Amino acid sequence: MQTIELIDLIIGYDNHAVVSPITASLNSGQLTCLLGANGSGKSTLLRTLAGFQPPLKGTIKMAGKPLQQWNHQELAQKVSVVLTEKLDLKNITVYELVGLGRSPYTGFWGGLSKMDDEIIQSSIALVGITPLSHRKIQTLSDGEKQKAFIAKALAQQTSVIILDEPTAFLDFQSKAETLQLLARLAHKEDKCIFLSIHDIELAIQVADKIWLIDDAHQLQVGTPKELIDNGIFPRFIENSSIQFDSYHQKIKIKNSHFIVERNPFTSDKMAVFLKLSMIKSLFMIR
What we know:
Elements: E1 2-10, E2 12-13, E3 16-17, E4 22-27, E5 30-36, H1 42-49, E6 57-62, E7 65-66, H2 72-76, E8 79-82, H3 94-99, H4 103-106, H5 114-126, H6 142-155, E9 160-163, H7 172-188, E10 192-196, H8 200-206, E11 209-213, E12 219-222, H9 224-229, H10 232-237, E13 242-245, E14 250-253, E15 258-262, E16 270-274, H11 276-282
Helix pairs in contact: 5-6
């Protein structure tokens, strides 16, 4: 079901557009990944969709209603946001952090009811960190902290979750676990989940849809397969140093004695394959 609709949307700052007009939609039950180079406008688009800054022109509809017609409390009950810059929270437990997700319903200083407690505990369980409920946030690993912030977003009980680079600063295993978790939440909890990410190979594997801001500041939208088949990824990625292997759905380094590939299906370690010419040289094959 269509949850967010963008119609001729122009985003930017001080009347300077950073992306060409956007007409697209985000659907419930889907994980959509936003890709683009640094400075391409990804964060600006996320902030605009979350209602943190107004668009320059165009319309954003949330559940069929223009975004500007939602008041702050209504919007907080519709959209939850997980930012890259985490709050500097210390001496607060995971349970207390997730409980902050109930503030759109209780008020910031409001007490938690039995129903709120059940929602908090359910949200913590959904991300798989129940044993960490009473741990202080500062004692958690980066991956565990990210799950705690996702649980806070779930406790907010919104139909839309927007995340700004949720896999930044995580090791590869934690990146994979976080994206698998978000995909599972989108599909099983019927959430509309929209996130920015730099890891193209991971996005291809987990995303239902991909939004890619290309070098011409145009938004390309499609399934991973559609963008690969249409040559979007090779055009976006290829330069003098790297190229995109559409068949294997991997990024390769060019002009090297070694072809370096990361296989995301196994581990974060680099699998290095010697070129046939080097193998021949090493073994004196003529």
